[in-house]
UniProtKB/TrEMBL annotation:
InterPro entries listed in its UniProt record: 4_helix_cytokine-like_core, Somatotropin/Prolactin, Somatotropin_CS
UniProt name for this protein: Prolactin-like
Similarity comment: Belongs to the somatotropin/prolactin family.
CDD domains: prolactin_like
Subcellular location: Secreted
Keyword RNA-binding: no
Lineage: Eukaryota, Metazoa, Chordata, Craniata, Vertebrata
Signal peptide residues on this chain, from the entry's feature table: 1-17
Organism of provenance: Microtus ochrogaster (Prairie vole)
Coiled-coil intervals: 126-153
rRNA-binding is among the record's keywords: no
Entry keywords, A to Z: Coiled coil, Hormone, Secreted, Signal
PANTHER family: GROWTH HORMONE D9, SOMATOTROPIN,PROLACTIN
Length: 215
C-alpha cells in the first residue's frame, strides 16, 4: 500500500516524551461523518500537493540517475510504529490509529517551516512550488485539528502520543548544494509518503467508524 521508506543517515530521530491532553471544548458542533469528510478532503488534497512537489523537485534538481539512486534516507517519522497494509490497519485500535496520525502530523510541523524557507531560497525553484509548500504547511495544521476532533469523539480523554523530532536542519542549510538538494529531495519524498499514510488511514477509519466496516 505504501512506498517503502529507504535507508540513510541524513535525518536522525529521537522521540519527544511529552504527550498532551486534548480539550473537548468546541469539538461537538459537527457530526462525526462531517468531521471525517472534511479531514479526508484535506488529507487527499495534501497528498496530491506533496506528490506534485516531489515530482517537480526531482525533475528540476535531481535529474541524474546517480543522484536519484542516492535518495535513500530514513524518514524522521520512521521510528513511529505504523501499520503498513490493510490487515495491520484493521488490527489497530481506532484510538491508536488516530494517535499515530496525529504524531505524524505533529512531526512535520518544524520540517515544513524550514521547507518553506529552503524552497524560498532555492535557486531555480518556480513560484508555484513555494506556494504549494506553504499550502501544505497550512493544511497540515488544519488537518491536525480535524484529527484531534475525531480522537476526542472516538476516545474522550485521550492523550496524544509522543512524536519524533526532525534533526535534519544542518543538511538543508548546508553550504554544499548537493547536500542541500539531497536533503530536500528526501524531505519531499518522506512528506509524500506520510501524507499518503494519513489519507489512507482516514479512509479506512471512516469506513470502520461510520459504516461499521461495510464499505
Amino acid at each position: 500500500m505504501f512506498q517503502l521508506l529507504l535507508l540513510s543517515n541524513l535525518l536522525w530521530e529521537y522521540v519527544i516524551p511529552m504527550p498532551m491532553c486534548l480539550d473537548v471544548e468546541g469539538y461537538n458542533e459537527l457530526s462525526m461523518e462531517e468531521i471525517f469528510d472534511r479531514a479526508i478532503v484535506m488529507a487527499q488534497y495534501t497528498y496530491n500537493l506533496t506528490t506534485q512537489m516531489s515530482e517537480e523537485f526531482d525533475e528540476n534538481f535531481s535529474e541524474s540517475l546517480w543522484y536519484k539512486a542516492r535518495n535513500s534516507s530514513t524518514c524522521h517519522t520512521a521510528s513511529l510504529a505504523t501499520p503498513e497494509d490493510s490487515e495491520q490497519i484493521q488490527q489497530t485500535q481506532s484510538d491508536d490509529l488516530l494517535k499515530v496520525m496525529i504524531s505524524i502530523s505533529r512531526a512535520w510541523y518544524h520540517p515544513l517551516e524550514h521547507l518553506v524557507r529552503s524552497v524560498a531560497a532555492l535557486k531555480g525553484a518556480c513560484e508555484t512550488m513555494l506556494s504549494k509548500v506553504k499550502e501544505v504547511e497550512k493544511k497540515n495544521e488544519e488537518l491536525l485539528e480535524e484529527m484531534k476532533r475525531i480522537l476526542v469523539r472516538v476516545h474522550p480523554g485521550a492523550e496524544e502520543n509522543a512524536y519524533p523530532a526532525w534533526m535534519g536542519l544542518a543538511e538543508v542549510r548546508s553550504a554544499n548544494e548537493d547536500t542541500r538538494h539531497f536533503a530536500l529531495s528526501n524531505l519531499f519524498h518522506c512528506l509524500r509518503c506520510d501524507a499518503n499514510k494519513v489519507a489512507t488511514y482516514l479512509l479506512i477509519l471512516r469506513c470502520r467508524v461510520i459504516h461499521d466496516n461495510n464499505c
